[in-house]
Structures are given as C-alpha cells and as structure tokens.
Automatic annotation (TrEMBL):
The keyword Transmembrane helix applies. The keyword Transmembrane applies. This is Uncharacterized protein. Signal peptide: none annotated. Keywords: Membrane, Transmembrane, Transmembrane helix. The chain crosses the membrane at residues 6-27, 34-51, 57-73, 80-100, 175-196, 202-223, 250-269, 275-293, 314-332, 352-382, 394-416, 436-453.
C-alpha cells in the first residue's frame, strides 16, 4: 500500500489539516477543533499503513491503553475527536522544518563548513574538536543531514586508517557534536516536546541549555584531544581554504541563528504566542527572506519544494505516534490510572536527585530497545504532571531535554545511530557502547544543573 501513487500526494491532505490548525490557533473555535479532531482520526488511519513496524506497535499500545481507560471513564464516544488535537502543533512544526534545511543548503553553507574537515592536521586529536564543532554548527540548521554530511567527508579523509579506529572516530565526533546542537536549537522537536510538556518558556531554558552544551563540548573535546592524539594523521585530500571566507560563512550562520531566535522570542511575547507555534509560522518567511538576501531564491524553491514534499509525504511515523499519544494522554488525565503512574514518583518526592537519575536511565534504557524519546516522554507524561506540582518546571524541562537528546548517541535502533551504522559499515551496538559513557555524562550534567535550580 505504501507504493500506491496516492501516497505521493499525502502532503496535500496533511498540509490542509495543518493550515486548519494554524487558523484555529488564532480564532480558537471549538467547532473547528472538533472538525480538526475528525481529520486527525482520518490522518491516523491513513498514516498507519505507511508507518514502520515499531511505530505501529507504539501507536497501537497508546490507543489500546487509552481506549480501555476511556471506556472505564464512561465518557461519550463523541468526545474522542476533541482528544486527538493536542499534539497538532508539534506535527505542524515537523512539516515546516525542511524549509530551514533548504535555505542553508541553497546558500551552500554545508559545503563551505565541511571544507574545514579537509584541512590537514598532524593527528586525530586535533581533528576531533574540529569535526565535532563542524557537525554542531551544521546541525543547528540541518538537523539529521548534518551528521551524514560530516560523516561522508570524514569517511573519505580517514580512508587510509584502520577501519575500527576510523569508525570509532566518526561515531564519537559526529554524533556527539550533533547532540550538542540539538540540545538548544529552536528547530529540534525533542526540545519543543519538552517545552510543550512542562510549559516553560524557551527564554528561561536557553541560558542553561547553552551552558550545559558548552561544558559538555569542552570536556568532550579535551577527552577527544587526548584519546586520539596518539594516532598520526595525514590527509591525502588536503586542500587550501580561504579562512577569511570561511569565517564570513560561520558569522553569517551565527547572525542568522541569533536573528531567528530574537524574532521567535519577540513575536511570541508581542502576540502572546507559545514557542512551538511561533517557530512554526516564522520558519518559512524567515527562510524565504534569507534566500532573497543571499540571491538564492531559485535554488531555495527548487531544493525546498522537493524536500518539503518528500518529508511531508513520509511523516506517517510521527503522525501515528503523536495522535495516538494525544489520545492516550488525554484519556488518562484525571483517572485512577494516572494515580497508579504517580505513586512511584511520589514515593521519592523528597529525593529529587533520585527521580532525575531514574528519568535519565529510563530514557537510555528505552532507547536501546527502539523506543523513541518522544514516546518515552509520553509514557512519563502522567508522572511529569505530578512533578510539576512540587518541583521547578525549568528543572524538569532540563532533565527531559538532556536525557532525551543524550539518547540520540546511544539509541541502537534510533535513526541517527542506524544511519551512522550504514554509513560506516559497523554494528549499531558498537556505536552504542562507544557513546554510552558520554550519554550518561551528558545527561548527568543536565541532572546536576537541574538539581541546583530546584
């Protein structure tokens, strides 16, 4: 069924639903929200056939548990559509992200920054922080594409080295740099979900996330410098680069990022819009105006349109997950089932550090079995609601963000680890083992910061 021609045009139906959602954010109509719920139900049914096996299992589990609790609550079946729309903002954000990716590609920032990896250095220890910071910078805009772009360049440059050493270097430098960018990037869905779940302001969270990212990057770079410095390296593909031009490109990207963040914060405060929605409606006009300034309008449209259609047509996994998760979360709200989830958390209410560590370990454990961190947040959502009643929401948000992002480097069945395994031809479990201590350390820094903010 996935191969049926109709699946090439799902982007039209999905976009129609997302536009209705955006309109309803402004007019706040209960009737339109109900229609949106019916459309969400259709989206769920249509997308289920195209979802992967893992997401079908997760979605089915959320729907089954939610249905049992819903039936026990005695609510009318007519109320179901209204329970399905609470995560529509996250899906709309996901649909808009490819446009920011496209404007960076049209400006050829990805090619320019990766030239940094082709400059010769004397050993791998010096190449490690450079590889990490390049991936980090690209990932701020390109997300998953940044990791694969950096890996392709490194794989070519490190070809003369022993395969085991080459694979280890690529899996640590690129995945860790990738994770540190997503920790604070306004375009990262895990950050958006954590903010959505806890209700904190992005502005109050950003300084702490930047601090955690800086500390982790510095310490990991020191580790990489000493761990790999014993391996000599001579790049056979070395080339000269114009450092002045390179610095201009990096400054250009940083200015664009700061401007985008400033606009998100300013417009959100001015019109009293939440963070996720502000980012969603700002992405396209910002990217388009940026392409005009760079005089890359034609390439932006060509890359953007094709990328957006392809990405929107393949949103089935997230549609199944988010809509089923909305039904699950809204069904258990205020029921005895929620009390059952809350009991273990309340038992450790006097020991918040224990709760934080438990949350971190749950994320890592679940990720090793293919459970997406967004689904883990959904599973923990009932307990998180309880924590927010007696703990600083910023602390909870920090733990959620750092714990979920840290899993990206160790999630054996996660997309970025699987892509890295394919790119390098190594076992994904080997990637998990290589990054496990880093993941624990990364999440641990977040836990410590969160604890001191209580």
């Amino acid at each position: 069924m996935k191969q049926h021609p109709i699946f090439r045009y799902l982007y039209i139906f999905y976009s129609f639903v997302f536009v209705i959602h955006i309109v309803n954010v402004f007019i706040e109509s209960d009737n339109l929200n109900y229609i949106l719920g019916i459309l969400a139900l259709i989206m769920l049914a249509v997308s289920f056939a195209g979802a992967s096996r893992l997401f079908k299992i997760l979605g089915s589990a959320f729907i089954l548990i939610g249905s049992v609790v819903f039936a026990a609550s005695g609510q009318s079946i007519e109320t179901i559509p209204a329970l399905l729309t609470s995560n529509m903002s996250l899906l709309t954000l996901l649909a808009m992200l490819p446009w920011m990716n496209s404007v960076v590609r049209s400006g050829r920032f990805d090619q320019s920054l990766n030239n940094l990896l082709k400059v010769n250095v004397s050993d791998l220890g010096k190449l490690y922080p450079r590889s990490s910071i390049t991936t980090l910078t690209l990932a701020s805009f390109l997300n998953l594409s940044a990791a694969t772009i950096s890996q392709d360049v490194l794989k070519e440059n490190l070809r003369p080295l022993d395969k085991k050493l080459r694979d280890s270097f690529i899996a640590t430098a690129t995945l860790r740099g990738y994770s540190l960018a997503l920790l604070w990037s306004p375009l990262e869905i895990l950050l958006a979900v954590s903010i959505f779940t806890t209700g904190v302001d992005y502005v109050s969270l950003l300084p702490w996330l930047l601090m955690i990212a800086a500390i982790t990057f510095i310490l990991d770079s020191i580790w990489g410098r000493f761990h790999y410095k014993k391996y000599a390296y001579e790049n056979t593909n070395k080339q000269s680069i114009n450092m002045k031009e390179m610095i201009k490109k990096i400054v250009h990207l940083l200015v664009a990022l700061v401007l985008f963040l400033s606009l998100v914060i300013s417009l959100g405060n001015l019109f009293n819009l939440d963070f996720i929605f502000t980012v969603t409606i700002l992405i396209f006009p910002f990217a388009f105006i940026w392409s005009l300034i760079m005089k890359r309008r034609r390439s932006f449209w060509t890359i953007g349109w094709n990328t957006w259609k392809a990405k929107t047509n393949t949103m089935q996994n997230f549609i199944v997950l988010f809509i089923s998760l909305a039904f699950f979360a809204n069904s258990i709200d205020g029921t005895p089932f929620l009390d059952f989830i809350q009991q273990p958390i309340l038992a450790f209410s006097d020991y918040p550090i224990v709760i934080f560590v438990m949350i971190q370990l749950i994320f890592i454990f679940m990720s090793m079995f293919g459970i997406h961190p967004i689904a883990t947040i959904g599973i923990l959502s009932g307990g998180i609601a309880t924590l927010l009643e007696f703990m600083n929401p910023v602390s909870i948000a920090i733990v959620l963000v750092t714990s979920s992002i840290a899993t990206l480097t160790v999630g054996t069945y996660g997309l970025v680890v699987q892509l890295t395994a394919v790119n390098t031809g190594q076992n994904p479990y080997r990637i998990t083992i290589n990054n496990l201590l880093y993941s624990l350390f990364f999440g641990g820094i977040g836990t410590v910061v969160a604890y001191f903010l209580l």
